[in-house]
Specification:
The chain has about 375 residues and is mainly alpha-helical. The protein folds into 3 domains: about 40 residues, no CATH class; about 100 residues, Tyrosine recombinase, N-terminal domain (DNA polymerase, domain 1); about 210 residues, Intergrase catalytic core (hpI Integrase, Chain A, Orthogonal Bundle), CATH 1.10.443.10. The chain has 15 helices and 7 strands. It has a 3-stranded antiparallel beta sheet. Strands 1-2 form a two-stranded antiparallel sheet. A hairpin with a 2-residue loop joins β1 and β2. It is elongated and about 85 Å long.
């Protein structure tokens, strides 16, 4: 069957029709793709009988159709973005929504994190793109509207003294300590390390850790699932430091109970809080925060006119270990493709973002060194 061919309209767009419905695109491929997507939804019974539905009605249909197979946590995120969008656009029909309305919606998330700004804008754009594909609107009003920028880098690299504490904490027997040191030396995601079975997934002969699955939480209930992306199934080098720590250990890294089941999200949150409290105590000579300045030794120092240093509070999030491992790869001069594979990213964008940020920091330090040398 010959390929379809069409001439562009005066406005530069291509038009194809199906059952009288127009589908537009700035290329033949785009217009045909929108028509075929409409056919697919029609076959599934997902095409609205309304010619101009309210945004909130169509957005809910989009959420149930396009995000029906994502993980519970991802579904919750999309639901929250759709809810926010509905507060701003929900009472308008799809055809009434203008570029200005989209800009106003974007302005509602100004000040939030860069990630939230991007994902909120992407959600609205995806809804309007689907409406275009369904033939409900002629043009996506999101075209050319940039998402607002928010603060980046909420995740951080651990300081050297914090890394030392993480390694030392393995010997305390804390239930989360082993998971923490594994994430530090592998960059594994939280869900991946919770699903890790030392007997099945750690090859001590080949010095490899196999990442094959992850844990997603439905409410607080753990569910075994595939990794976050196809690229998440990967092999990570078993570093000598970690190999020594794991030798002689068996089963799940963080079992949820004595029978070895998976841990719930509620248990995990309590465990991470407890772990940070442990590290804080270790960072302050074994003294917990509530006793800082109240011990006999501290009271004696204060009574003699001395002062105490500020209490060293440790607050490490699971993703901070991953960011730290990525930083280690950069400092070890690991190439982008290898770093992407070990980190389990589907593409280079995230690695490039981290590497570029680290390069900027390194360049700034170099400038400061040069200025100090020049003035010295």
């Amino acid at each position: 069957m010959p390929a379809e061919s069409f001439k562009p309209r005066k406005d530069g767009r291509y038009l194809v029709r199906y059952k009288g419905k127009p589908f537009y695109g700035y290329s033949q491929k785009e217009a045909i793709a929108k028509r075929e997507e409409y056919k697919r939804l029609e076959a599934l019974g997902m095409v609205s009988t309304k010619t101009n539905p309210l945004f909130r009605d169509y957005a809910q249909q989009w959420l149930e159709t396009y995000k029906c197979n994502v993980s519970p946590s991802v579904k919750r995120n999309y639901t929250s973005y759709v809810k926010r969008a509905n507060e701003l656009l929900g009472k308008k029909t799809l055809k009434e929504i203008t570029r200005t309305d989209i800009v106003k919606a974007h302005n509602s998330v100004v000040g939030m994190s860069g990630s939230t700004c991007r994902k909120f804008a992407m959600t609205i754009n995806a809804i309007m793109e689907a409406a275009c594909a369904d033939g409900l609107i002629m043009r996506n009003p999101c075209k050319g509207v940039k998402a607002p920028k928010g603060p980046e880098g909420s995740h951080r690299c651990l300081d050297a003294w914090e890394k030392d504490l993480v390694i030392q904490a393995v010997n305390t027997g804390h239930r989360f300590a082993l998971a923490a040191v594994i994430m530090l030396y592998t960059g594994m995601r939280r869900g991946e390390v919770l699903a890790l079975d030392i007997d099945e997934d750690v090859d001590f002969d080949e010095d490899i850790i196999h990442v094959r699955r992850g844990i997603q939480f439905d409410g607080s209930v753990p569910k075994v699932s595939d990794t976050k992306t196809e690229a998440g199934v990967r092999d990570i080098p078993l570093l000598p430091q970690l190999k020594t720590i794991l030798t002689g250990r068996h089963g799940l890294v963080v079992p949820g109970n004595r029978e070895g089941g998976y841990i719930s999200e509620t248990q995990l949150k309590e465990l991470v809080t407890s772990y940070n409290n442990l590290l804080s105590s270790m960072a302050n000579g074994g003294i917990q925060r509530r006793w800082w300045g109240r011990t006999k030794e501290h009271k004696a120092i204060l009574a003699s006119g001395g002062t105490l240093p500020p209490y060293r509070e440790v607050n490490i999030r699971c993703h901070d270990f991953r960011h730290t491992f990525c930083t280690m790869l950069y400092e070890a001069d690991i190439d982008l493709k290898t770093a992407q594979r070990w980190m389990g990213h589907a593409d280079e964008k995230m690695i490039l973002h981290v590497y570029a940020h680290l390069t900027d920091k390194q360049e700034k330090k170099s400038v400061e060194k040069l200025m100090a040398f020049a003035t010295g």
